[in-house]
Specification:
277 residues; six-stranded antiparallel beta sheet; Jelly Rolls; single chain; alpha+beta; 4 helices; 20% helix
């Protein structure tokens, strides 16, 4: 009977540790992509029948990195006041006029992170003073000229919630160049089908049960990370739209569960089974 009690205790301990991990790091970020050719957020679809919803978009109309400030409002539902703010930091970001690699609609400017090895820039999110918006639980962007070195990381303060790599997207929509793949090549008439070896798509990231306040853009291995129409939102409730991109589990939960398993193994080692004679 002693052996049975130890097994039950170990199982309960593991379950309690798992429950604690879920409670501490409960964020689930769902990544989706919109139909081929989509380059901007659809506020009507994103807000859907939400009781409260605020959406802002940075469309990069100037040839300089946007100064820290509010995201221009696309829509606000439910009497929310205030705005979501954003500040860009990092030396690797450069603004380019629309060309075959970026610039939604074939006009304006777009930010590119270009590096011969690796580089990064950060978008830090916040709220205006007195805002009734609780936090940011959505981010979208036109991911143009997608390449293997593009990476996005979502943080709540210093806690990493999700790392998104292009492999997750490319494996679903298929490789390029491919004349039958509508995601291959620039969809704008002025640069139509240029850069046909890379994918162009609008991606969405929905935090179903929490908030994030920092997004890190990274280019690894050399190349460029181009994007446009970066969009932030608060949604209540959060209802992901688009085709879901399969991703990895949240690292915070995984680390805690793994640590809990190590503690459990140590406990079992120090508690040998004693048999009665």
């Amino acid at each position: 009977m002693r052996l049975i009690r130890i097994k039950i205790c170990a199982t309960l301990a593991f379950c309690l540790l798992a429950a604690s991990a879920t409670a501490l790091y409960a964020d689930t970020i769902i990544a989706t992509y919109a139909p081929a050719g989509t380059q901007a957020p659809n506020a009507t679809v994103l807000c859907g029948s939400d009781t409260k919803c605020w959406i802002g978009e940075q469309s990069f109309t100037a040839d300089s990195v946007p100064a820290a400030g509010v995201f221009p409002t696309l829509t606000s539902v439910g009497g929310l006041t205030g705005s979501i703010t954003g500040a860009y930091s990092g030396s690797g970001i450069t603004m380019y006029a629309a060309d075959q690699y970026g610039g939604a609609g074939g006009t304006g400017y777009y930010p590119e992170l270009f590096s011969t090895n690796s580089g990064t820039y950060t978008l830090t999110l916040g709220l205006t003073s007195g805002s009734t918006i609780p936090g940011v639980n959505y981010f979208g962007l036109w991911f143009s000229a997608l390449d293997a070195g593009n990476e996005l990381q979502f943080y709540e303060n210093n806690t990493l919630l999700l790392t998104f790599t292009p492999v997750m997207f490319q494996s679903l929509v298929g490789a390029c160049p491919n004349s039958s793949n509508a995601f291959c090549g620039n969809p704008n008439s002025s640069f139509l089908d240029k850069d046909s070896g890379e994918q162009f798509a609008f991606l969405n990231f929905f935090d179903e049960n929490g908030y994030f306040n920092k997004i890190v853009f990274t280019e690894t291995g050399g190349g460029g990370f181009e994007s446009d129409n970066q969009t932030v939102a608060y949604m209540n409730p959060v209802t992901p739209t688009g085709t879901i991109i399969s991703g990895a589990p949240e690292p915070g939960s995984f680390v805690l569960l793994f640590s809990g398993l190590l503690v459990l193994l140590a406990f079992m080692r120090r508690s040998p089974v004693k048999e009665r004679g």
